[in-house]
Amino acid sequence: MGGQQPPALVTVTAGDGGRAASGRRRRGWPLVLTALALLAALTVAATALRDNGTLAAWEADAVETSDAAELRLGYFGNLTHGPALVGLENDYFAQELGDTALSAQVFNSGPTAVEAMNAGSIDAAFVGPNPAINSFVRSQGRSLAVVAGAASGGAQFVVRPAVTGPEDLAGRTVASPEFGGTQDVALRTWLAEQEYDADGEGDRAVAITPMANGQTISMLRQGRVDGAWLPQPWATRAVQDGARVLVDERDLWADGRYPTTVLVVRKDYLERHPETVEELVRGLQRSVDWLHEHEAEPELLASTLNEGLESAQTETLPEATVAGALEAVEWTTDPLADTYPQLLADGVAAGTTEEAPLEGLVDTTVLDRVRAGSEGGA
Hints:
The structure is a single chain. By secondary structure, the protein is α/β, with parallel strands linked by helices. The protein has 2 domains: 68-152 and 257-374, Periplasmic binding protein-like II (D-Maltodextrin-Binding Protein, domain 2, 3-Layer(aba) Sandwich), CATH 3.40.190; 154-251, Periplasmic binding protein-like II (D-Maltodextrin-Binding Protein, domain 2, 3-Layer(aba) Sandwich), CATH 3.40.190. 47% of the residues lie in helices and 17% in strands. The strands form 2 sheets. It has a 6-stranded mixed beta sheet with strand order 2-1-3-11-4-12, sandwiched between helices. It has a 6-stranded mixed beta sheet with strand order 7-8-6-9-5-10, with helices on both faces. It comes from Kocuria rosea subsp. polaris. It holds the Pfam family NMT1_2.
């Protein structure tokens, strides 16, 4: 047994005879060893290429792209989602998507919409930046990409009259739309800066309860919560109902600009259907342009946005409420990428996400093409 040779691959060709076959058997092992050496070299080369990103780039280039048969879009019934409301009501998205079937689904919070996206139930969504960051971090950059902005500003911390100032919040209960959402992170960050212990114990504790925006208005009215960090139109509705603005989030940013609503797309969808995503972004750009073009026409703005809210099964608003809410909002397709490191830091400090690199989260490739096309057309 100890001196037995390893089995060899024997190929027999008719007419060779035993001697010819034996000769080929002796030459087979050097060929096998050469093949193994070549395979090892290719493996080392592939590893090196993968480490420096070259192989990944080749693999990405090899992805076959096409127009999508359908696009499933998520959004909220909030005025900070105005471009989504206008794009759906004026058919801008459908017109740009052409033969791609469009369906839309309404969500109440960013984390819920992102969960649906991660589950493959929707392909793209208008959400706040913090849920997008959370998903990107947890998936190690594989889940989604921010392809454009939609709105800046439009979030405020409103309180009941009994709250006379920041120093009067100890022991009180305040609300945010959902744990880990953009307004929730902003609230927790601000409370920490005021040296309050969110959801903690002791003399500096402030309880935070998540609830739907519509419910928050009722709870404020009844005195069951003392304040809430709300997007528009809910902040303006609360003020019209007797609350007052304690903090306008624009005042917390150096230039007063921060992303409230952005457009995110599943990365696998973006990779396979970049043309379809570009069509969606073109529809978004048309919506933002329309909002700018008609900002001096409050009646038309209110009418169109209310039609969008009604389609989203959200209560419509008086023209004065729409006008008051829009004073706090800036429409822009700019995702304001420079703010994301601070948004991530705030989420880490608030305990809603973890520290991680954000390279690849904001991808403006499609947006840049849309903008270049718009400039060329002008």
